[in-house]
Amino acid sequence: MDKNRRNFIKILLIGGGTLLVGKLFGPKILNLFSSEPEMEIGKDLNNFNITEDKKELIISDKGGEEIFIIDKEK
């Protein structure tokens, strides 16, 4: 076999393996090295009321003041 061909195939296999390992373990490895605490979505909704009807979704505080309104489209 030609030496250039072997080097090309070797680089192609190493690059493909690196890409595959990065896709599989990338987010997990980044989470190991990050020191920031993760926020869980939906965990701190004790101070808000969420109401939903056919037309809109309303997020309000405990006092009843509307903070955010999302209109639904049909």
Plain-language structure description:
- The chain is about 40% helix and about 25% strand.
- It is built from one helix and three strands.
- The radius of gyration is 26 Å and the shape is elongated.
- Strand 1 and strand 2 form a beta hairpin.
- The chain has a three-stranded antiparallel sheet, with no helix packed on it.
- The protein is an alpha+beta fold.
- It folds into two domains: about 40 residues; about 35 residues, no CATH class.
| Uncertain stretches of 5 or more adjacent residues | none
Structural class: alpha+beta
DSSP helix count? 1
Strand order of the largest sheet: 1-2-3
Mean pLDDT: 80
**Biggest beta sheet summary:** 3 strands, antiparallel
**Number of individual domains:** 2
Radius of gyration: 26 Å
Number of strands: 3
CA distance, first residue to last residue: 65 Å
Oligomer: single chain
Anisotropy-based shape? elongated
Estimated share of beta-strand residues: 15-25%
Instruction: Give the helices and strands as they follow along the chain.
Output: HEEE
The helix content, as a percent range, equals 40-55%
